Amino acid sequence: MTSLDPPADLPSTMHTSEPAAGAPRAAFVALREDLSRCIIGQQRLVERLLVALLADGHLLVEGAPGLAKTTAIKELAARIEADFHRVQFTPDLLPADLTGTEIYRPQTAQFEFQRGPLFHNLVLADEINRAPAKVQSALLEAMGERQITVGRATFALPRLFLVMATQNPIEQEGTYPLPEAQLDRFLLHVRIDYPAAGAETEILRLARARAQGAAATAVAAARRVSQDQVFAARREVLDLHLAPALETYLVQLVLATRSAADHGDDLARWIAWGASPRGTIALDRCARARVWLAGRDFVTPEDIHAIAPDVLRHRLMPSYEAEARALDSDAIVAQVLQSVQLPSTAVDQDPALAAAAN
């Protein structure tokens, strides 16, 4: 069996594995390759976007300006049967600017509900921490309940509904940080960094080609992934094999953030509050989605370790002592992964994992 240390974010299997014969998986493999060609240097963001889509959740992306966050979700929307809307969050934004409002029609002497941006399939909440708490609450209610309430009426949101919210880690003045309880509504909290030098050279050449009209930006309708394929892919993700011992291990990782004293005095002093059961569900679904994208049919410990930081970093609260030691949630998650032992039966009793070990 390979080492249980957290692997590189995108192992070679993500690109070399042959997709299964199913139409949904083949469509998503092609989708990932298409996105990788136009979103250069941000493979992590591309993969996490697809994981969130497959796991039917939402993601919070944190990164400096100009790292293709908006471009990534726009390009994704252009390649699936979904409509897209971007909302720039500002301090003067109102909840009705997201949900919509009732408008009086003099012709009929009646009020008519005008739907807001949340009724689109893919929504970009740009700089979510710049809007006040009421606006953030309206968005997070829609994310959690898949519906909005205006007055006495409740309106269901589209079945395919994904929110990508962004935060700028550079400027914190005039912002309204999301409380931990609201952050828990996000399936993933993804941190992205600047691209490498080689990738930035490719970005420069692509931008020059597009400016000269040499690079086609339109997406052929025939290449779009249908919503039926997305829903079929989600069913296949849930059907992936997860060994019972690995399921127990996954649960123990989350429990370790709540009962940290069982895994060492240091960990107990560093965690003020652990992950909720949403973290367990998210870790399971995201690990399965990552495996499915890789073209495999069973989950391994490495898959759980690879996705765990993005699933757990916003679901645990570092203590004051951890902050004094300059330990952030990423360092604490890494310590949790090292502290919780993988059950020895995970490989011995499961044929799929035993085959992978050999």
Describe the structure.
This protein starts with 12 loop residues before the first helix and ends with a helix. The protein has a five-stranded parallel β-sheet. It has a two-stranded antiparallel ribbon with strand order 3-4. Strands 6-7 form a two-stranded antiparallel sheet. The chain is an alpha/beta fold and 358 residues long. Strand 6 and strand 7 (153-156) form a beta hairpin. The chain has 17 helices and eleven strands. The protein is globular, with a radius of gyration of 21 Å. The chain has a single domain (13-82, 160-357), classed as Helicase, Ruva Protein, domain 3, CATH 1.10.8.80.
Summed up, what is this model?
This protein has 17 helices and eleven strands.
Which CATH class applies here?
Mainly Alpha
By secondary-structure content and strand pairing, the structural class works out as alpha/beta
The helix tally amounts to: 17
Name given to the CATH architecture: Orthogonal Bundle
**How far is the N terminus from the C terminus?**
7 Å
**Oligomer designation:** single chain
Instruction: Count up the domains.
Output: 1
Strand neighbour order, sheet with most strands = 2-5-8-1-9
Q: What is the typical, i.e. mean, pLDDT?
A: 85
Unreliable residue stretches:
1-21, 217-222
Quote the CATH topology: Helicase, Ruva Protein, domain 3
Shape: globular
Spell the H/E element sequence: HHHEHEHEEEHEEEHEHHHHEHHEHHHH
State the CATH superfamily name: Magnesium chelatase subunit I, C-Terminal domain
Give the radius of gyration: 21 Å
Secondary structure: number of strands: 11
Percent of residues in β-strands:
5-15%
Main pleated-sheet profile: 5 strands, parallel
Instruction: Indicate the percent of residues in helices.
Output: 40-55%
